[in-house]
Amino acid sequence: MKNRIGFVFFLLITISSVILLNTQFSNIPPLGKFLNPYNGFWKNAETDQIKIFNKIKLTGIKDSVIIQYDSMLVPHIYSRNDQDLFYSQGYLTAFHRLWQMEFQIKAASGELSEILGERALKRDREQRRKGITYAAKKTLEKSIEDSTTYKLLEAYVRGVNDYISQLNYSSYPIEYKLLNYKPQKWSILKTFILMESMSDMLSSRDMDIEDTYLLNTIGKEKYDLLFPEYHGKIKPIIPSGTKFNFKTDKLIVPEKINYNILPDKTFSKQDKDNGSHNFAISPNKTKDGSVLLGSQPDLSLNLPSIWYLVHLNSPNYNTMGASLPGAPGVIIGFNDNVAWGETNATRDVVDWYKIEFKDNKRSEYKYGDKWLKSEKIIEEIKIKNQNSFYDTVIYTHYGPVSYDRNFYLDSLKVNYSMRWVAHDESVEYKTFLLLNQAKNIFDIENALMYFNGPAQNFAYGTKYGDIGLTIAGKFPIKWQEQGKFVLDGSNPSHEWNGFIPYEHVLKISNPASGFVSSANQHPSDKTYPYYYFSDNYEMYRGRRLIERIESIEKFDIEDAIKVQNDNFSYKAFETLPLLIKKTDTLNLKMEEKKIFNSIKNWDYFAKPEDTNTSTFVIWWNKIQEKLWDEFDTMKYSYRKPDSYTTYSLINNYDDLEFYDNLNTDKIESIDEIILLSFKETVDSLNAWKKSKNKDIIRWKEFKNTTIKHLLGLESFSFPNVDVGGDRNIINAASERHGPSWRMIVKLNRDKKTEAWGVYPGGQSGNPGNSNYFEGIENWGKGKYKKLLFNKNFNDNRSKTIFEKTFK
Amino acid sequence: MNFILRIIIIGLSAFYIVESFPWWVIIILPFILGISFDDNLISHFLSSFIGTSVAWIFLLLDLDLGSQSILSIKIIEILSIESTNSLIIITSIIAGVISGMGNLTGISLRNILFKKKKIREYRF
Lengths: 807, 124
Known about the structure:
The complex is a heterodimer.
Chain A: H1 2-21, H2 31-35, H3 49-53, E1 65-70, E2 75-79, H4 82-109, H5 113-116, H6 121-130, H7 132-143, H8 147-165, H9 174-179, H10 188-203, H11 208-226, E3 275-281, E4 291-300, E5 302-303, E6 308-313, E7 318-323, E8 332-335, E9 338-344, E10 350-355, E11 364-367, E12 370-373, E13 375-381, E14 389-395, E15 415-420, H12 428-437, H13 441-449, E16 456-462, E17 467-472, E18 487-488, E19 507-509, E20 515-518, H14 541-551, H15 557-564, H16 570-582, H17 590-600, H18 613-627, H19 643-652, H20 670-692, H21 699-703, E21 708-709, E22 737-739, E23 742-747, E24 754-758, H22 776-781, E25 785-786, E26 800-806
Parallel strand pairs in A: 2-6, 5-21, 10-18
Antiparallel strand pairs in A: 1-2, 1-26, 3-4, 3-20, 4-22, 4-23, 6-7, 7-8, 8-9, 9-16, 10-15, 11-12, 13-14, 16-17, 17-19, 23-24, 24-25
Helix pairs in contact in A: 4-8, 4-10, 7-10, 12-13, 16-19, 18-20
Chain B: H1 3-15, H2 28-36, H3 41-66, H4 72-78, H5 84-113
Helix pairs in contact in B: 1-3, 2-5, 3-5
């Protein structure tokens, strides 16, 4: 008996310990599985790149493929047909970035709870209610029509899946082991979800509901004063004075209605600073008569980086540049003949329609004098270690009814349906595949015709000396102020009035000025015959970029690099003299005076070592906080006037009701607010110095630019990058956001295409790979690497670290 | 079977397990040895514990030194462990205990299957 008890006892202990060590508890990975030396996390440490490259097995190719890696770990793929080319791109991208590819899709489609648990549920519901997967499915249906491109997409997907099928627990990327889940198969739908997530990042930000609320609260006059559509000082992308040789139909503005019932919260907003800059310089403005193209997308700074560099070569392609892990082809790059780069064309392409359902079943909604049928989609959100959450999302012909009685709205009668161009079928990927093969400016324009997603400013140049910029995308035709506030979904005259035809789209080629550029500013002046609007036109980078390019008579590569890394704060240059003029210096104490004198002599450059930038940044933030504190008393979501409007109001009005600080009994003047804010700034600076134990405040240390791992894990992230710049500065590196890829391409009729680039991260997305943090320091310092780009693989040989022919 | 010999056999087998097996196969050999050879519990436990722990320490040190701690220093931060050495020691001790438990399960099964003669000899 005693023996039996002993046996059962030991057996139970052994089995239960094994089970315990194979189970995940909250954020702690299953320790036995994770820590063991046979296939645990240790196997993800990669210091010998060649050893890892030797694991590549391209099993699904039809003909021979040559793969080379250069010292930056950029793959150079030389194939004999396009299918093998994109198969290899899929395989090799997954080889370095599989976890990120899948995680981004899960995040976009609202399936994060499946791997992260309940903490991701709110975000997941938002993504479902935005209809990201719904949009991707529409594109999928459309894409089948074009069988050539579809086959290339299929080849890419096969490549990713062949890589996944070669994996076992030991070779899973580290994040799968940490979170204890397995990679799932890739699909064309996932590639389209990725494209939709880019649209989401760049175009889903809107303020319609916030603005309607503000309009109801403060009235039209004050609203227009605080949120003007134009400013006198704009320098639009298409230069002012450009003639538009077409007329548009006059649109009748229907009667507007007051909307009193609004959602009390809205979707979490995409980062206001998502933007970019690009430029193309024509041969008559460069030293050696080449064309120069610069492109720098400013996005959230993450690891693994949003971009993956590739060089694709087949009889039809020879292209290189930044690709999106999960999508075939090159997104920002160049080939033998042309180069191109995009910036976000910030335009209001999301509108909200008020929907009235017939009854509680919500199966019909009012439209004119009819009732239209709605469609119900039941979204199952799987949650790790819990039961699934079910959310019913109703679709009207506009799109998903995002806000209803189940989500942010406490009303049976009023619902809001989203109308977003990204929900329409689109074939953006085709644009990129065509651009990758483009030979001249006509090919580029032809490629851009297919770009019917949320708009982008495409700047481009060719080796024959042409430069141009097209604002391509799908633009709804709107009457004055249509969609700025919520619309009436039951009124057919509130519908969009079709889309702007491609020949009326804003574009410019070979201008006399010798350059084109864009930085998310206004696309044109008011003379453009179509109404356009955005709450988020950037007022500083665009003006600086234009003035900086104009100031350089003849460009070479060094000048282009200097432009991309320009730390000049146009905001400070414009705002600070006004603040200094209005500061009552008699009321400053000794220490305050010292700091005041220092900032008075500042050159407005936010260099990494600069000691004045932090003073200005805190001071200006404090002034804005105090000025717009009236807004903080509002019950619903709202927005505050932007930096430029604030400056121009202070400049133009000595007295405004908003100047008063609500926290005090007396009524302040703007001068008092400025002085008080300055005093508080000095206090904050001192507090910072004390907490960090430092004598001086260097801008880079105060700002603390951090490149963060997608899971936010500190040890997988890179803090305190030695980099200058800030938001609203061309070198847009703020705390968590900034230039995600810097590229400069030189095109010359008589020479091979040359290109330079750097991005804050490594090609390998594996935190255990010695390449993981690779580009970050050079990126901060503005040190670019020359990209290896040859049509013939033999010419690469002196600069590659690995080469293998697959058959 | 000799205590030292058992340590060596268990240690070597733990050292040469291939990556396609799950980590808990480390309990199988100690379990078999437990069924096959009669000895007291402490001796059995210790032979497995020492064999497996030492094998894991060597394996882990090799992995850590070979990779210049490139990943382990990041992992210890996530798991709030002080140093990579502590991580290696803790991991090895856990492995030792688990394999020792496997061994004890084996010997206690043996005790049921083969009725043990009363042990009368005492060793000093």
